[in-house]
Amino acid sequence: MVAQFLGLKLRLLANTLRRSPLQVLGIFVGLLYAIGATGITVAGLASLRRVEPVLAGDITVAVGSAIVLGFLLVPLALGADNSLDPRAFSLFGIPANRLAAVIALTGLVGLPSVAIASVAIAQVVTWARNPLSVIIALFSALLILATCLLGARVSSSVASILLTTRRARELTTLVMLVALVLLAPAIALLASVDWDRGGLSALESVADVAGWTPIGAAWSAPAEAASGNAGAAVLKLLIAAATVGLLWMAWRALVGWLLVAPQRRERASNYVGLGWFGRVPDSPVGAIAARSITYWIRDARYHTTLLAVPVAPLLFVVVLAVAGVPGSVLALIPVPVMCLFLAWSMHNDVASDSSAVWLHLASNTSGWADRLGRMVPALVIGILLIAIGSPIAAAISGDDGVLPSLIGVSSSLLLAGLGLSSVVSARFPYPSVRPGDSPYAQPQASGTGAGLIQSLSFFAAIALSAPALWFALQGLWHPGATSWPMFSLLVGLGMGLVLLALGVLWGGKIFSRRSPELLAFSLRH
């Protein structure tokens, strides 16, 4: 039976290469990224063999605990793994104990298992210092592999139970979004730590705590053995073994429950009232704002946009941190960049409506009302982002004097970008993903027009905010002068509001004048 299940898992993995070319390309990119990350981790662990045991143990425990935590949390965040779901075998009469063991063994087939096995073997090389540490490291490698694979199975099964309803999936998406937003400041904070002075003591504190927890005990046991603490090494090995035993019992219980329990289904909701339409002013702007807010909450295309907003500054921060940019500067990047991408995401909003735009045209809605109503969700999110994120970023940077500059630049990027998007979306719409389609689907765009519009609108928003950026940079270059940050604040807010108003009025005129062309465009695409 084990051979049959392993063969089934191999066929399932092979079927992933029979998808569309774009999906296969994404799989290969992810595969290369995983191989690269695994190779770097393995090489790093192997190089720790020449480092003194205490420091090597601190690094190994910190990195290893993060890896185990990833195996436990990623399945919960990304949803259930439907391959070899125990419920699919409920009609075959396989005993729960046997089915649980066989499915757990199939976890050995796949890239995650190969990656964690490679890392677990690499930590044996790290602790090849004396016979006791090698023996403990070998047992730890087996326990690390079992902990990660069983933990991933348990998390995946829990996700298959809990994440079946739309509300649960939306809550999970929100949690991931918040985590991504907090990740960029966290990286900036880590980059600002003086690792030569306080960094190593902080790492030691983390390793001391994690080494006695289920996620770090197996990684810490060989370090104790290498340092001559045989008793602590055995005790931590017992903690790791007990963790594997508890995970096995949890997995066995979940398999037994899934074999007999009916699949959880989402209950139909009875909506009462008009939703957002009953909470906004009774006006054309209010009605369009309510429709836009509803789209931003329910439409997967807008969810993808919201997910990309915090990812963009994260990439900036990571690249600049690797380049050696100080953490005090990195902390100032996320909020303005998120405001820029949030405003830029509206540059093709008319195309996202598809044929629904005819409602605005048939009701003779004024162009400025359409332009203003559409930007309400992005405007509200951006204002909250600036109000909450700017003080936090200034505090992380360690200089409260940059707060006016941060607010000015972020406000300018948000307001000027929204004003520009109001004009661009009415004058230069291009094919977008249709409502109901996958947000990752590729619409048929004509030539390079879509890419040109995207690039020009993006860099034009930055150019319109150049005055506020210039004053902010002057404030950074002249720390003692308090006038530069105030100039950045006043210019950013002032120009942003003016450009927003001009964009709404100009975009409204274009929308009203080109309404027949916009309707024809929406019907074609």
Give a structural overview.
It contains 23 helices and no strands. The protein has helices at 2-15, 21-47, 53-78, 96-106, 111-126, 131-162, 166-191, 195-210, 217-226, 230-260, 284-298, 300-322, 327-330, 334-344, 349-353, 358-362, 367-374, 376-397, 403-427, 449-464, 466-477, 483-513, 515-524. It has two domains: 2-160 and 205-260, no CATH class; 283-441 and 448-524, no CATH class. By secondary structure, it is an all-alpha fold.
Concise account of the structure shown:
Helices cover 75% and strands 0% of the residues. With 525 residues, it is mostly helical. It has 2 domains: 215 residues, no CATH class; 236 residues, no CATH class.
Output the number of helix runs.
23
Task: Give the biggest sheet.
Answer: none
Query: Structural class, please?
Result: mainly alpha
* Rg result: 27 Å
Oligomeric status: single chain
Helix-residue proportion: over 70%
Gap between N and C termini, in Å?
51 Å
Mean model confidence by pLDDT:
80
Q: Tell the overall outline.
A: globular
Structural domains: how many: 2
- The counted number of beta strands is 0
Q: What is the N-to-C succession of helices and strands?
A: HHHHHHHHHHHHHHHHHHHHHHH
User: Could you name the ranges where pLDDT drops below 50 across 5 or more consecutive residues?
Assistant: none
What proportion strand?
under 5%
